[in-house]
Write a structure and sequence with these properties.
This protein is mainly beta. The protein has one domain: Porin. Helices cover 1% and strands 52% of the residues. The chain contains one helix and 19 strands. The chain is globular and about 70 Å long. It starts with 16 loop residues before the first helix and ends with a strand.
Length: 274
């Protein structure tokens, strides 16, 4: 934060002649801007959609993040949200993401290189309490931006959210899902007066899981009111979440209730950055 210090020179009526011959001190120079930036954000969403797929069984999510950025372009952060165990995190109800990278800018162009670790404390890969390691995912990403447009590719360096392969009947094959990738193309446009519009299309290619590849999309609007950002977005996918055949994105809760996790919906939200 830049601070301007205004020096007020007071010349006493009884100053000695020697002081009278000395030039008045110049205004103090502005303190240099700090190269460090710390921010926090909290938001409430009617549904948590990750790459178009509901992570909260179509129910609300409370989310928060903390970010540190250096003027050189380096950054690290942590993002958190509640999730539902049925979304692939047996016995888990929390997601914690840790990320870091380098984001230099060149005029209107930007570059983003980094990695992210997704962690679901209390969850179990094999299902059942204390039965196996927690569900995780590790991805590297590379992105670029120009003005209001951005594109980014994520690449999984381990089994994608600890999942293993399945065949056309839905039976487990034991094959690794490492190498799964996600491509994202987004646009965020400032309309002025606190209004903004955003659009997105993405594609998920899950390695060795039958019927798991899909496209997702979003079209939204935001309004900033005294620092509080209200949002509404239409989100949809062509993910397989039906009731017949192999449907990887039809999730079932412990109560027996099943739902299409990629069904089109409207997500409303309110958030604030500090």
């Amino acid at each position: 934060m830049k601070k301007s210090l205004i020096a007020l020179a007071l010349v006493g009526a009884f100053a000695a002649p020697a002081f009278a011959q000395t030039a008045a001190p110049a205004a103090a120079e502005a303190a240099p801007a700090s190269p460090h930036t710390l921010t926090a954000n909290v938001g409430l969403f009617s549904d948590y959609r990750f790459r178009g797929i509901s992570q909260t069984a179509t129910r609300p999510a409370l989310q928060g993040r903390f970010d540190y950025a250096h003027s050189s372009g380096f950054y690290v952060g942590n993002w958190n949200s509640n999730v539902d165990a049925s979304a692939g995190y047996p016995d888990g109800n929390l997601e914690m993401d840790f990320y870091g990278g380098f984001k230099p800018t060149f005029g209107d162009f930007g570059l983003d290189i980094g990695g992210i670790f997704y962690y679901y404390p209390g969850s179990s890969v094999n299902g059942g309490k204390n039965n196996g390691d927690a569900v995780t995912n590790k991805e590297l990403y590379l992105g670029g931006s120009w003005k209001f447009l951005s594109a980014k590719v994520f690449y999984s360096v381990d089994d994608y959210f600890s999942a293993r392969g399945t065949d056309s009947t839905g039976a487990a094959t034991g094959k690794s899902t490492q190498g799964t990738y996600y491509g994202d193309l987004s646009a965020n446009f400032d309309l002025g007066s606190g209004w903004g519009i955003n659009a997105h299309v993405g594609y998920t290619d899950v390695k060795n899981v039958h019927n798991a590849d899909y496209t997702d999309w979003k079209l939204g609007v935001t309004k900033d009111i005294s620092g509080w950002v209200l949002g509404a977005a239409y989100i949809g996918t062509d993910a397989k979440g039906g009731t017949t055949g192999v449907q990887p994105y039809r999730f079932t809760k412990s109560s027996g209730y099943s739902y299409d996790s990629g069904k089109d919906t409207v997500v409303v939200s309110v958030s604030r950055t500090f």
